[in-house]
Amino acid sequence: MPSRPASDVFSAPTAPAAAPASFLATVARELLDRYGSGPLDELSDIVVVVPTRRAVVYLKNELAVNLPVGAPLWAPRVAAMEDYMVELAGVQVEEPIALQLLLYDILKRIDPHLDFDQFVGWAGLLLSDFSNLDQNLAPTRKVFEYLSQAKALERWDLEALPEKSRAAAHSFSFWDQLEQVYRELQRRMKANHLAYPGLAYRLAVEKLEKTIQDPAAPEVARHVFVGLGNLSRSEEKLIRLLLTAGRAEVRFDADPFYLEKDSPNRAGQHLRRYFEKWQLPLDNFGGGVEWLRGRPRHVRYLGVANPSMQGKLAGQLLAEARRQYPDATVAVVLPDETLLLPVLHGLPPDEVPDYNVTMGLSFQATPLFNLVDLLFEVHLTGIREGSPETGYGVPRYHHLAVTKLLSHPFLRRYQQWQDRQADEPQYHGVLDQICREIVRLNAVLLPAEELLRLGAHHPIVEALFKTWDNCDDIIAACNTLIDLLKRVYADQQGGIEAEYLYLFYTLVKQLDSAFDCREQRLSVRSFRRFLYEQMGRTRLPFSGEPLAEVQVMGLLETRALDFDHLIILSCNEGVLPAPKKQQSLFPYDVLTEFKLPTYADAEAITAYNFWRLLQRAQRVDLVHVLPGAEGMKSGERSRFLLQLENDLLPQNPQLTLEDLTVSVAGPDAEVGANPYEGDLILEKDPEMLAALRGVLERNISPSRLNDFLACSLRFYFSKVARFHENDAVEETLEASSFGTMVHEALENLMQPFAQEARSITADDIPELIRQAPHEVQKALRQEETEKHARADEGLNHVYGQVATRLMVRLLESLTEQPGLLPIRLFGLEKELAATVFVDVPGQPEPLAVRLFGFADRVDELPDGRLRVVDYKSGLVKRNDLQLRGYRDRLSPAEATERLLLEASSSADKVRQLWLYRLMLAHTAQRETAETAILSLRNIDEGLLSADLSFITDGGQEFVAASEELVRKIVLRILDPTEPIRKTDDFTKCEHCPYKGICAR
């Protein structure tokens, strides 16, 4: 399918037929006609039960809209199914945290050794299973018997196993206690008129059954069940009891497309069962009206490159819809609730001034949750040295967790507010100061006391990093954090951040009142689990017009509602429908044996909600993420899109389906002659040339000259613009740091010989070998600096052992190879420099180019010449240093050209050796020998020299010939016709620190 820019996606579809009446509007008219037009006005006596509270609002509005103008009428009782069941049961649904604590108390009496931290890991699932049993009226005694040890052993025939293998039977002891726990939990809750959701459903059905069977009880009100879909067993029984008593009517919203008996579509699997079991007329199931196969409908598949594009696209689709059909109702449906904020940010204020958000923002989708999560990460990823009884105490925190926490937007805003407080200058920039000090000290793990000191004991630093010893400390830290952060937003009326803080405050207060921390010694992880469970259930409500023409909602909230235009996002497998996850402690065979809901039922529910929503919609936009998108576990289209294309489309000739790919609109690329078109190009104007001359005059090292030849843009960033890499904490030795460590250790070993002007002889080697491990350890741990000692553990320890082995092998090789000893040191880490004067066209005075560098080691040879020895921790072979190639295949002129122009690894090394020799000759004013490389990974080959004889092939003296070649490189750097640009060799970008700037 061809890709189209976003601006081309919104082609106006053909004008549809008149919008059909919504399902609730039809039901409202039927109710008014049947119960509201007679002399007794029975409408106020009936109970109408709908799937959701949102449907309650819509049905009441339809009743009001369909009344004759000015006609008074008593409305019926309209309730959502869940609310009505709880009301009918006459109980109050208990808070989840209180339920878990009650469950723990019961289990603790049965098993005194039960660990609370382990309990919180599965308590929520167990309560959910209990609720599931009751809501589906499962025969609990049989279920628990099935789960018991005897039945499990009987089914798996463990009697046939050897005696020792029967220890597996102990794993079933947990199931033996479940029925006892279940009965005791129910007993305690009923005694206090409390219930968990499933128990409320069971009690409601039992109460209704008793009322119907009691001749003395008043007659049950007439019920009308409207728009329900897949029912639990308790809901089924409730409706069946009322139907049998003649006190109920049922109005399902269904379509023959999925309701027909031979339909493979799972959307109708439950409705088909009700249709056959209850023997209701077809009118109760939609009357056989062909909404999906018999009406015109315009459907668009819109593929986007990544999930983040969906919010912006939804806003554009809404804007187009409001311009073309200003009176139509539109629903933006979010199967993935994490898209709520991107969608709200993408709504166009001009075209969509009024809208309603029905789903509420999950607290876990707010920035404040991210701050709390980072705070727990700090306290849970450090080194624990607390009491083994509680698991508390994290006196040393990991630098990455600390830095991430201090970089959070909430804390950044607080720092800005703090910087404006003139009476507290000691706290200005305090959070930034902590981050800088962490890097300066190379602190991998920071003691809590040191963090407090770096933060000048500011209250917010103490709230963040003071060690948590019990959950009182956690609650106190959260309260302090809330009090400090709310100062930032105190002057902002209606700021959403203040709403976040208030919600967090209420959550902390709930936990504070729920836990007696002196009795329940909760670990940090257990407290976090309880807090996160509360956060997951907490929603930030949005105020808006409930009946606005534009609704932003979740898929479940669309039940029984209809819209003219649908925009459904995240139409991908794994989101719509949700992935196959069995959220239950009970084995799958138990669920299927007793007809309890499984993931297959959840998929059927999603299918029904999807297809029912499409029934009366005239325009449908289904947005999906294309395969290969970052952050997507599956790039496949939802199965519903495939069903629509391959099943519904052939059966509905009036359905128009477009399959589009949305892309970002941009100007067409023009083909030109400029080879640098579209690249990052910096012309060498007079200002640029002046800056380059300044760099050459100050000092330029051989490495920087290599940078220019490899990538002139990298040279510009490092030497002209002076963009420095951000310093970072080095937790594990990098490759460059490994080489530095080896260099430092070798320098420390040989420094006494250089200071005393004493030669290194064969007699000195055993003592140097003995000292090598100690010097490596010193260089590794950085103990002589004010930085934190680098940890000698993990990979660092391995690198230290490798460095020691390399040094020992190097020292041993000195005695094995002839001619290497004795070594007379002329200098270690010797500073070298050379000044070369270059006549630059257009400049009145010669340019004094200063070459500068440090030589690892300078030896004085027996004949008085000096030689630079450059240590390389990597692998270097002798052939790498031969620019003339094998057996001098290249001429001296060709080798010189390679030296001046080539950016290969071999040419870089030879160029470096050449310039070191030139600088040594200038610095020492003595005759020099060939510069050599000592490869620590190729010690057996000894000193590796580069053959530079091609430089003096014309009979010139080395220094004069070298200065002439340096002038050529300088003139190329200052050539105004050669712009500064990116390299064409992408391999050189792999480890470049500036690749993020030039988009490589």
Describe the structure using short key phrases:
46% helix, 37 helices, alpha/beta, 1000 residues, five-stranded mixed beta sheet, 23 strands, eight-stranded parallel beta sheet, disordered N terminus, elongated
What kind of sheet is the major sheet?
8 strands, parallel
Strand proportion, as a percent range, falls in 5-15%
Rounded radius of gyration (Å): 39 Å
The helicity comes to 40-55%
How far is it from the N-terminal to the C-terminal residue, by CA? Answer: 29 Å
Q: DSSP helix count?
A: 37
Shape: elongated
Average per-residue pLDDT, rounded, comes to: 85
**Strand order across the largest sheet:** 1-18-8-17-16-9-15-10
How many strands in all? 23
pLDDT < 50 runs, ≥5 residues: 1-17, 164-171, 386-394, 666-678
What is the structural class?
alpha/beta
Description of the molecule:
With 1000 residues, the protein is of the alpha/beta class. The protein is built from 37 helices and 23 strands. It has an 8-stranded parallel β-sheet, sandwiched between helices. A 5-stranded mixed β-sheet has the order 19-20-21-22-23. Strands 3-2-6-7 form a 4-stranded parallel β-sheet. It is elongated and about 125 Å long. 34% of the residues are buried.
Q: Layout of SSEs?
A:
Layout: E1 3-5, H1 6-9, H2 23-35, E2 47-50, H3 53-65, E3 77-80, H4 81-89, E4 92-93, H5 96-110, H6 116-135, H7 140-147, H8 149-156, H9 173-191, E5 194-195, H10 197-213, E6 223-226, H11 233-244, E7 248-251, H12 256-259, H13 269-278, H14 291-294, E8 297-304, H15 309-324, E9 330-333, H16 340-346, E10 356-357, E11 361-362, H17 367-380, E12 396-398, H18 399-406, H19 409-419, H20 430-440, E13 445-447, H21 448-454, H22 459-465, H23 471-488, H24 496-514, H25 524-537, E14 539-540, E15 550-553, E16 565-568, H26 588-593, H27 599-614, E17 619-625, H28 639-651, E18 655-663, H29 686-698, H30 702-710, H31 712-720, H32 735-755, H33 765-781, H34 795-816, E19 825-838, E20 847-860, E21 866-872, H35 892-901, H36 905-924, E22 932-935, E23 944-945, H37 958-973
Parallel strand pairs: 1-18, 2-3, 2-6, 4-5, 6-7, 8-17, 8-18, 9-15, 9-16, 10-15, 16-17, 21-22
Antiparallel strand pairs: 11-14, 12-13, 19-20, 20-21, 22-23
Helix pairs in contact: 2-3, 4-10, 5-6, 5-9, 6-10, 6-25, 7-9, 10-11, 15-16, 17-18, 17-25, 18-20, 19-23, 22-23, 23-24, 24-25, 30-31, 32-33, 32-34, 33-34, 36-37
